[in-house]
């Protein structure tokens, strides 16, 4: 009698395996069918290019992107987000937003009235991070380029043109636990040429 009961119970094992397998397959199909489609990722990696931007499209995309060298750095995502705030603030002429991306010292060196005058006609784009290097603890340097367009009267005195391609090194510093764009000697001698 015990062996008859055991024989009746053994046929349940394959049935349970089949039921569990069908349940798992059904769950996977349902997940794929009803899952929200992912938005395509925004392209944030570029290869260096010397192609000039047509005059009508200048200054180019306002989205900060990076080269493969930069995007492979562990600090890239934070750096890209920080520089996006920095350049968005300049393009929107939003001093408070810009101040949120820079150190207190840098903000003190450029009060709002001076800042607004400096960027009154400036529009920045084609922003590319080429390299990120860590320095002393809590510091980093970022090599980047961007294009600015501005009224000729607002251009630097040494290059009075409407479109400038800038090559700069920004100093970054951790302030109150957050990376910020700092002032200092690395950002004071940028290379620049007419677009």
Can you walk through the features of this model?
By secondary structure, this protein is of the alpha+beta class. The protein has two domains: 2-34; 55-194, Nuclear Transport Factor 2, Chain: A (Roll), CATH 3.10.450.100. It is 36% helix and 24% strand. It has seven helices and six strands, in the order ααβαααααβββββ. Strands 1, 2, 3, 4, 5 and 6 form a six-stranded mixed β-sheet that branches. A hairpin with a 2-residue loop joins strand 4 (163-175) and strand 5 (178-182). It is globular. The model is unreliable at 19-25 and 36-42 (pLDDT under 50). Residues 44-53 have a biased composition (Polar residues). Residues 35-71 are annotated as: Disordered.
Approximate shape? globular
Enumerate how many helices there are, as a single number: 7
Run of helices and strands? HHEHHHHHEEEEE
Distance between the termini: 94 Å
Uncertain spans:
19-25, 36-42
CATH class of the largest domain: Alpha Beta
Name the structural class: alpha+beta
> Nearest-angstrom radius of gyration?
27 Å
> How much is the average pLDDT?
81
Number of domains: 2
> What's the main sheet like?
6 strands, mixed
Quaternary structure state of the chains depicted: single chain
Classify the helix fraction into a percent range.
25-40%
The CATH topology assignment of the largest domain is Nuclear Transport Factor 2, Chain: A
CATH 2nd-level architecture of the largest domain: Roll
The CATH superfamily label of the largest domain reads: NTF2-like, domain 1
Content of β-strand = 15-25%
* SS elements, strand count: 6
């Amino acid at each position: 009698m015990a062996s008859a009961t055991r024989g009746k119970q053994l046929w349940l094992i394959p049935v349970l395996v089949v039921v569990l397998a069908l349940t798992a397959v059904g769950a996977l199909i349902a997940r794929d069918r009803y899952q929200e489609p992912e938005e395509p990722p925004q392209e944030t990696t570029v290869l260096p290019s010397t192609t000039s931007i047509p005059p009508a499209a200048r200054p180019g995309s306002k989205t900060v992107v990076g080269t493969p060298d930069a995007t492979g750095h562990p600090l890239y995502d934070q750096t890209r987000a920080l520089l996006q705030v920095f350049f968005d603030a300049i393009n929107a002429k939003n001093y408070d937003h810009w101040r949120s991306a820079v150190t207190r010292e840098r903000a003190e060196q450029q009060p709002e009235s001076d800042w607004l005058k400096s960027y009154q006609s400036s529009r920045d784009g084609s922003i590319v991070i080429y390299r990120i290097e860590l320095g002393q603890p809590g510091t980093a340097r970022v090599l980047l380029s961007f294009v600015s367009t501005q009224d000729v009267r607002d251009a630097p005195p040494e290059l009075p043109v409407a479109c400038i391609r800038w090559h700069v090194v920004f100093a970054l510093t951790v302030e109150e636990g957050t990376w910020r764009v700092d002032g200092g000697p690395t950002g004071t001698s940028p290379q620049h040429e007419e677009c």
